[in-house]
């Protein structure tokens, strides 16, 4: 196959366990999944080489290369970022330590906040003072040079500096002076808060600026290595997925490193949004279950829900990002027994090395993947990633040991491994159900009005069981579901965001002043855009009722109309909070602008050949009809206030094995309908269709699962 005149496009997503690749040569799609590596750039190039060889394409023929990574989020979660110094206003040195004085767990007396990303000995105070209205006390450049000397002489060495001065979001002159002086005196990255996050709230602005400085050296080093390796292969420079669901070039990402903290999960949500035409009018709940964790989000009107109030590892990161709820339940999540004898799953993962026991790489701990193998959802002949074959005996041995530890006797069958597998499956599902409720019920949405879009290496095996728990009647499994985040990269728009605090009663907001502020924001976002003439700029505002502490974001018309903004805020408040106060004054807090250059999603055709049925195998299901739905619904569904643990497994062998037909996912014909139980195997993932569900094949290859009772 040649790439002449067809266009070759490449998307690569790095996960905690596998690196996923999607390659399009014209409309022909090739996928690959290889183990992630310590230096992610090595695994990325290995995955690209594997996909190109399978497609018969030279890497030098690739026209476009898009990439999602976990470098930034891993640096924060693992405490492996740069040694960072903080320069702040005298008297505010400990703002990172004090935070909001809230507790991670209100009733846990032993709960501890995560350590600040900057230790106290690396925090420096400067004698200056600004207000929202101007400079009261300018900085002394000589003092800044003395601080620079202290930073330069630190042992161990400081690798990045964050600058966050009081009220710099509104009056940045002092902060500009400090940042400029430090950049002259030091040979390390310097992040200034007015450049990173131009909005008020001292703690969150400082924490976000520190996170920017903390991850910048890691991002710069990684992108440098990846660009060198890509160049050696003849590949173009990568464009990178940001947490906001949009693509940016590598140079922009280097200057805004913290925007990549949820790069991979955002790509998955964008990929799922391509298939929202198969969902009810309300939209999609996206469910991405990989090897290490599960990510859930919401897609409405074809757009991913976004937030500006995320925490990463307990550290506030206030940049626009896809609203993703992540839990430590993936295929590689380790099952264990707590001190009270209850069965738990995750958050610790077996990863890719050694991986689950069934990988045969030396792992002995039981995982969710081992449970799926014992239950028959995966077969001993199923291959994962680079032809990885599964060891059913090793999985059973690991789960039998877990059953002994948990006191599961296997019921009337005496099969401890099966009892443990059933318990692990249900506990993992309970954890993921809570995550889905977090982005639906807790945000004012009824999950039953949505379809569940399942993807990731393990998601489609659990999706129908989760849907039963939630009362969801439709599950959409996109094609290439095991590498959908990589596919989402190719469908993503280019996006850039900017924000400015502008606090005033909404009714008193001057349209000319607000309009001028939006014009400035427009120039800012367009300056980062590769094709400004192709960009559309949208406007939003953060508003709240007078006296409230937190805001909701609503769309803003052009020209500015305070009445329309107020009505939109009342509607949003009623949806999210459950009530509206139409007679209460509304406060305008932050102005936001987003520049979007539309992407060019690849064409997805489904034209299979050959017999799709590959055989049968015994797969375990809870039961049929209402009994099955009832047990799943009662499996922790009324237990939202607590943990779903081993005490919830009941008789873990209830149900029975079914002789279940197995189909090759890529060969099922469009328009065909299949009754459950059935299993659809693909190169990257397996779809489990329980009894009393049916699956139809859409013209784009998506499997649409629907309750059939």
Task: Write up what this structure looks like.
It is a single chain. With 709 residues, the protein is α+β, with helices and mostly antiparallel strands. Among the domains are: 8-75 and 221-260, Nucleotidyltransferase, domain 5, CATH 3.30.420.40; 81-214, Rossmann fold (3-Layer(aba) Sandwich), CATH 3.40.50; 494-597, Dna Ligase, domain 1 (2-Layer Sandwich). It is 30% helix and 27% strand. It is built from 17 helices and 37 strands. The strands form ten sheets. Strands 13, 14, 15, 20, 25, 26, 33, 36 and 37 form a nine-stranded mixed β-sheet that branches. A six-stranded mixed β-sheet has the order 3-2-1-4-11-12, with helices on both faces. Strands 6-5-9-10 form a four-stranded parallel β-sheet, with helices on both faces. α5 (173-185) links the parallel β9 (160-164) and β10. α1 packs across α7 and α2 crosses α7. The longest helix has 31 residues, at 202-232.
């Amino acid at each position: 196959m040649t790439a002449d005149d067809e266009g070759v496009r490449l998307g690569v997503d790095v996960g905690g366990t596998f690196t996923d690749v999607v390659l399009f040569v014209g409309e022909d799609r090739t996928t690959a999944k290889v183990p992630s590596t310590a230096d992610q750039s090595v695994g990325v190039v290995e995955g690209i080489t594997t996909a190109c060889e399978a497609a018969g394409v030279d890497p030098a023929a690739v026209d476009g290369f898009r990439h999602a990574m976990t470098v930034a989020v891993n640096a924060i979660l693992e405490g492996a970022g740069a040694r960072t110094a903080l320069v702040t206003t005298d008297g505010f040195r400990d703002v990172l330590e004090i935070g909001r004085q809230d507790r991670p767990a209100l009733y846990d007396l032993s709960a501890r906040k995560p350590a600040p990303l900057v230790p106290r000995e690396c925090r420096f105070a400067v004698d200056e003072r600004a207000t929202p209205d101007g400079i009261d006390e300018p900085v002394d450049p000589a003092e800044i040079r003395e601080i620079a000397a202290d930073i330069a002489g630190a042992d161990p060495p400081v690798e990045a500096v964050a600058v966050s001065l009081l009220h710099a979001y509104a009056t940045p002159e002092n902060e500009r002076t400090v940042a400029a002086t430090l950049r002259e005196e030091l040979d390390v990255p310097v992040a200034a808060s007015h450049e990173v996050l131009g909005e008020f709230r001292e703690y969150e602005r400082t924490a976000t600026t520190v996170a920017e400085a903390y991850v910048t050296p890691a991002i710069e080093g990684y992108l440098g290595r990846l660009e060198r390796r890509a160049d050696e292969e003849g590949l173009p420079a990568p464009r990178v997925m940001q947490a906001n669901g949009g693509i940016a070039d590598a140079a922009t990402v280097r200057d805004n490193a913290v925007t990549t903290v949820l790069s991979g999960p955002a790509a998955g949500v964008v990929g799922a949004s391509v298939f929202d035409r198969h969902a009810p009018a309300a939209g999609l709940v996206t469910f991405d279950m990989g090897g290490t964790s599960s990510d859930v989000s919401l897609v409405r009107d074809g757009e991913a829900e976004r937030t500006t109030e995320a925490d990463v590892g307990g550290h506030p990161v206030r940049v626009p990002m896809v609203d993703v709820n992540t839990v430590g339940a993936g295929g590689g999540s380790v099952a264990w027994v707590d001190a009270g004898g209850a069965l738990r799953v995750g958050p610790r993962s077996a990863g890719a090395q050694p991986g689950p026991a069934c990988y045969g790489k030396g792992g002995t701990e039981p995982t969710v993947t081992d449970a799926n193998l014992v239950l028959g959802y995966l077969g001993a002949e199923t291959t994962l990633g680079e032809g990885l074959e599964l060891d059913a005996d090793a999985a059973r041995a690991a789960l039998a040991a877990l059953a002994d530890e948990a006191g599961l006797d296997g019921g009337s069958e005496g099969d401890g491994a099966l009892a443990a597998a059933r318990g692990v499956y249900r506990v993992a599902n309970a954890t993921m159900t809570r995550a889905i409720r977090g982005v639906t019920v807790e945000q004012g949405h009824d999950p039953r009005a949505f379809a569940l879009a399942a993807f990731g290496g393990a998601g489609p095996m659990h999706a129908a069981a989760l849907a039963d728990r939630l009362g969801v009647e439709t599950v959409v499994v996109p094609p290439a579901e095991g590498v959908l985040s990589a596919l989402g990269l190719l469908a993503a728009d280019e996006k850039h965001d900017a924000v400015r605090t502008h606090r005033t009663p909404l009714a008193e907001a001057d349209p000319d002043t607000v309009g001028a502020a939006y014009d400035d924001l427009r120039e800012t976002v367009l300056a980062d855009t590769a094709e400004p003439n192709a960009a559309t700029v949208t406007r939003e505002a953060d508003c709240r009722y007078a006296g409230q502490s937190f805001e909701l974001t609503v769309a803003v018309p052009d020209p500015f109309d305070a009445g329309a903004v107020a009505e939109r805020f009342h509607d949003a408040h009623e949806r999210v909070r459950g009530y509206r106060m139409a007679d209460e004054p509304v406060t305008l807090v932050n102005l936001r602008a987003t520049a979007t250059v539309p992407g060019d999603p690849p064409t997805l055709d489904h034209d299979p050949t050959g017999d799709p049925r590959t055989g049968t195998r015994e797969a375990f299901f809870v039961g049929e009809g209402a009994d099955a739905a009832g047990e799943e619904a009662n499996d922790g569904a009324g237990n939202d206030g607590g943990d779903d643990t081993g005490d919830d497994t009941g008789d873990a062998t209830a149900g029975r094995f079914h002789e279940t037909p197995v189909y090759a996912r890529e060969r099922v014909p469009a328009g065909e309908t299949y009754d459950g139980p059935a299993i659809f195997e693909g190169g990257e993932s397996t779809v489990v269709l329980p009894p009393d569900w049916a699956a139809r094949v859409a013209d784009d290859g998506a499997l649409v699962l629907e309750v059939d009772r």
